[in-house]
Design a protein that fits this description.
With about 140 residues, the protein is α/β, with parallel strands linked by helices. The protein has a domain of about 80 residues: 2-Layer Sandwich (Nucleotidyltransferase, domain 5), CATH 3.30.420. Helix content is about 40%, strand content about 10%. It has 4 helices and 5 strands. Strands 3-2-1-4-5 form a 5-stranded mixed sheet. Strand 1 and strand 2 form a beta hairpin. Helix 3 crosses helix 4.
């Protein structure tokens, strides 16, 4: 009789079951929410150059009349001369009158600070330029 009681106790104990239905419901609701929201999100996209340079007869970037070089010590150079921001602005205003359709080139050293780049960019905008080329030199 003892064996029966042992067997009856063993069969009466059931392993607890986990109900996954609420978890699956929540996952589907979140998935549907993302599917509805994803098309609404506005993502800024930057188009990169194709890498194929257009055939133009131009001077090398350092010798172009509208080439601005920012070196690693954050010094600003234009036309082989070091200058500060106010001098750069005066020269850019005169260059804008001489070359109204030219796009200035900015050659920024990778060790130069972003603040210097932003200063040059703001100066170009103040002088009336709407575009600029950023020249990258691989090392």
């Amino acid at each position: 009789m003892r064996q029966r009681s042992w067997e009856s106790q063993e069969s009466s104990i059931e392993e607890p079951s986990i109900n996954l239905t609420p978890l699956i419901d929540v996952v589907f609701v979140v998935l549907i929410a993302f599917m509805i929201i994803a098309p609404i999100l506005d993502v800024d996209i930057v188009d990169l150059a194709t890498g194929k340079p257009e055939k133009q007869e131009t001077l090398p970037p350092e010798q172009s009349p509208l080439s601005i070089v920012v070196r690693s010590d954050n010094s600003i150079w234009m036309g082989g001369q070091r200058m500060n921001v106010s001098e750069l602005e005066k020269i850019l205003l005169s260059q804008k009158k001489m070359y109204p359709h030219k796009v200035p080139q900015v050659i920024h050293d990778k060790n130069g600070s972003f603040g210097t780049y932003q200063t040059v960019k703001n100066t170009l905008e103040q002088c009336g330029f709407t575009q600029m080329e950023i020249i990258l030199k691989p090392e």
